[in-house]
Design goal:
The complex is a heterodimer. Chain A is an alpha+beta fold. Chain A has two domains: 231 residues, Rossmann fold; 121 residues, OB fold (Dihydrolipoamide Acetyltransferase, E2P). Helix content of chain A is 23%, strand content 35%. Chain A is built from eight helices and 21 strands. In chain A, strands 6-7-8-3-9-10 form a six-stranded mixed β-sheet, sandwiched between helices. Chain A has a six-stranded antiparallel β-sheet with strand order 13-12-11-14-20-21, with no helix packed on it. A five-stranded antiparallel β-sheet of chain A has the order 15-19-16-17-18, with no helix packed on it. In chain A, β1 and β2 form a beta hairpin. In chain A, α2 packs across α3. The radius of gyration of chain A is 25 Å and the shape is elongated. The two termini of chain A are 34 Å apart. The relative contact order of chain A is 0.12. Chain B is of the alpha+beta class. Chain B folds into two domains: 231 residues, P-loop containing nucleotide triphosphate hydrolases (Rossmann fold); 120 residues, Beta Barrel (OB fold (Dihydrolipoamide Acetyltransferase, E2P)). Helices cover 27% and strands 33% of the residues of chain B. Chain B contains ten helices and 21 strands. Chain B is elongated, with a radius of gyration of 25 Å. Classes of the chains: A alpha+beta, B alpha+beta. At the A-B interface, α5, α6, α7 and β16 of A face α6, α7, α8, β17 and β19 of B.
Chain lengths: 364, 371
């Protein structure tokens, strides 16, 4: 177990390419942190700097308070499991897992004991004598994890370890990784571009974009209080809806349609000086309610454009009855299937309304 | 064209049976998807309909007209593949409009009409701003949408789409799916769509056929396929978190028929389920039977839920934005409960479980489930 502090870390490549800019965050000992972002956002560079595979241009990284900038990867006592981290084809699974232990001079008997221990946790005991080439993808990934974790490292770094697996294998791997983390009390940093993966596994998520940290927080914080429009859009599937609105009062926002203005209450007050200004209203598809008739609550009129059945839910695309015909998606339970062309009303509750002035949220 | 019909179609490559005596009828105006794992024969079916591959035996009809002897060109169908095959020396506009200028077309379109058509389909697929570019300037996802636009610009009898959006990232896939669905609603032309992605099939289709080794396991509406899977293969292929498939045996205790999963749990069967389940178990050499239930139909609680509830310790908990997936470990498999809201359970905590009997299925074991 180990706490990690990232203090003012920069990575600048030749030609002034800033891959990582002024990164500041920490990982508590025993925490599961996901670093999430699109490709090229700097997340893998960050992981490689923590691992010691990449020099730090500026700033410092500390493990338990001790600066590790100049330590080699092997001196940092880390476990690394990368998507592309190949197993040794000529060694058996057992020999692959034992390799890092034997390389450090551990006796064969002791190494064997360790291999048996980790193999049992990851359920690969019955394939220890096999060669990697004969294994399924799921088995290879588990062996890979065994090899990374057998040394009982201070920090476990995982780079997209399960992004290409089929649904069942991935679900099993997610459960195993989270179980392993909790049972062995690991400190885990998990890099991924897949927001679903990050949400599934992590205690906290660090969202990166354009070489910068955008937000770090629990899944609920990221989901309910995104730090900017990028985070709001990147996390969540289908992505957050945006509509043109106007701030009517300190606790009121309106959206105009051909029927007139629909005014919604907010759960916080906005600045007095914002009143009267045009604003972007954001609502998650999961947090919009659709009804066939206008009820007591304030609602937006629209027409059903499409329905997409997804098993547990239906994604309904509604075109608002405004001049832009703004496209809004709602995810609803499958009890009823709205018909294409049907007129519907969209309701939302104050705590689910996000307001953005450009990129910046004004209701945090 | 009103319909496509396959009658006892078989395809062999040498000794290898690719399509095994397949019959189905496509209904007018329908969005029909064929899903299945790699190697199931999905593309082979499309190629035989298009006339690119001859059938080994059986007949293919367009309406009531047998087309076995017709060439691909004579069949007048449009195809889009996973690979894009764009003409690199032509602009995106020229690529998309190419089928409209093909020499075999009877009537030539006016320039304005041609542009209108190209722009319309480009709008639908969100690539209008790319019309003046060359393919080399496009990303993989953009190329794939151009290829799709080229297939769909023409008014033809039938669109055959073979994984046309497989290379797009999740976000783009979703918006292209929306575009495709909208286009299909608007055109009302026959679409036969091949994919390995069940989400695409569920969201787009009027009917889905699940293909396994050249045979259909089930044909039905998305709702039927999702809620009433006919086999463990279909159940396994559709849904995330995956359908729970738990192996066990039937036992009789004091006149009550129970499903027993190793030493992990036993639950009673509904009256109407007993006879068919018994038949499946009797047909298995080890008397084994497979219980199936969607994770959303498994209830979890701190207190006992019903007479049929049983207890298990939690193996692991993972989150979803508005819910939790709780994994339980059995002797030979994992199974999951997908619950709404964020419940405060801990690892290894023993909780009560309950299966919604109306949605509990019993299958013959036809696939291998690994742990």
């Amino acid at each position: 177990m180990s706490r990690v502090d990232i203090n003012g870390v920069w990575k600048i490549y030749e030609g002034d390419v800033e891959a990582v800019q002024d990164l500041n965050f920490f990982i508590e000992s025993g925490e599961f942190l996901a670093v999430l972002g699109p490709s090229g956002c700097g997340k893998s560079t960050t992981l490689r700097m923590i691992a010691g595979l990449e020099d730090i241009t500026k700033g410092e990284i500390r493990f338990d308070g001790k600066v590790v900038n100049d330590l080699s990867p092997s001196e940092r006592n880390l476990a690394l499991a990368f998507e592309s981290y190949a197993l040794y084809a000529r060694l058996t699974v057992h020999e692959n897992i034992a390799f890092p232990l034997r390389a450090k001079g551990m006796s064969k008997a002791e190494a064997d004991k360790k291999v048996q221990w980790i193999a049992k946790i990851l359920n690969v005991t019955d394939i220890l004598k096999k060669k990697p080439g004969s294994l399924s993808g799921g088995h290879q990934q588990r062996v890979n994890l065994c090899r990374a974790l057998v040394r009982q490292p201070n920090i476990t770094l995982l780079d997209e370890p399960i992004s290409h697996m089929d649904v069942r294998v991935r679900a099993n791997m997610r459960a195993r990784i989270r179980r392993l983390h909790d049972e062995l009390k690991l400190t885990t940093i998990y890099v991924t571009h897949d927001q679903e993966e990050a949400v599934a596994l992590a205690d906290r998520v660090a969202v990166m974009n354009h070489a910068k940290l955008q937000q770090i927080g629990t899944v609920d914080e990221i989901w309910n209080h995104p730090a900017n429009k990028f985070v709001a859009t990147f996390v969540g599937e289908p992505e957050m809806n945006f509509m043109q609105g106007r701030i009517e009062g300190r606790e009121e926002v309106s959206i105009s349609t051909k029927d007139g203005k629909s005014t919604f209450r907010l759960d916080k007050e906005v600045d007095a000086k914002s009143v009267g200004s045009e604003i972007t209203v954001g609502v998650r598809p999961q947090q919009l309610q659709i009804s066939r008739s206008r009820g007591e609550k304030e609602a937006l009129p629209g027409v059903v454009d499409l329905t997409q059945f997804q098993g547990e839910a239906v994604i309904v695309t509604v075109l608002l009855d405004d001049s832009e015909k703004t496209e809004v998606k709602a995810v609803i339970e499958t009890d009823w299937m709205p018909q294409i062309g049907e007129k519907v009303w969209l309701e939302m509750t104050p705590e689910n309304i996000h307001l953005f002035d450009g990129e910046i949220p004004i209701l945090r | 064209m009103a319909g496509v019909r396959l009658e006892s179609v078989t395809k062999k490559y040498g000794q290898k049976l690719a399509i095994d005596n397949l019959s189905f009828e496509y209904r007018e105006g329908e969005f029909f998807s064929i899903i299945g794992p790699a190697g199931a024969g999905k593309s082979t079916i499309l190629k035989m309909i298009a006339g690119i591959e001859p059938v080994t035996s059986g007949k293919i009809y367009f309406d009531d007209y047998e087309v076995n002897a017709l060439s691909a060109r004579e069949r007048n169908v449009a195809m889009a593949f996973e690979t894009y095959n764009l003409y690199s020396h032509m602009s995106v506009y020229e690529n998309i409009s190419f089928p409209l200028r093909a020499p075999e077309r009877h009537e030539k379109l006016s320039r304005d009409e041609e542009r209108r058509r190209v722009e319309e389909v480009a709008d639908f697929l969100g690539i209008r701003r790319l019309l003046d570019r060359k393919p080399v300037q496009l990303s993989g996802g953009e190329k794939q949408r151009v290829s799709l636009a080229r297939a769909m610009v023409r008014q033809c009898e039938c669109f055959l789409l073979d994984e046309p959006i497989a290379h797009l990232d999740a976000r783009l896939k979703f918006s292209t799916q929306t575009a495709l669905k909208r286009l299909s609603v608007k055109l009302g032309t026959a679409i036969i769509y091949v994919t390995h992605d069940y989400r695409e099939a569920l969201g787009l289709s009027d009917r889905i056929a699940v293909l396994r080794k050249g045979r259909f396991e089930q044909i039905g509406t998305p709702q039927e396929i999702y809620n009433q899977p006919a086999t463990d293969f279909v159940a396994n292929f559709i849904g995330d978190p995956p359908f729970n498939l738990i192996d066990g045996t039937l036992v009789n205790k004091n006149g009550v028929t129970l499903f027993q999963s190793g030493n992990d749990f036993t639950i009673p069967l509904q009256e109407k389920a007993i006879e068919p389940a018994q038949r499946i178990a009797d047909g298995d050499q080890n008397g084994e039977i497979r219980l199936g239930i969607r994770p959303s139909r498994v209830k979890v609680g701190k207190e006992r839920i019903s007479d049929h509830s049983f207890q298990l310790p939690i193996y692991a908990i993972v989150r979803r934005p508005e819910g939790t997936v709780i994994t339980f470990e059995l002797e030979n498999s994992f199974f999951r409960a997908s619950v709404k809201g964020v419940e405060r359970y801990g690892m290894s905590e023993k909780v009560w479980l309950d299966f919604d009997q109306e949605y509990t299925f019993f299958f013959k074991k036809t696939i291998k489930i690994s742990k």
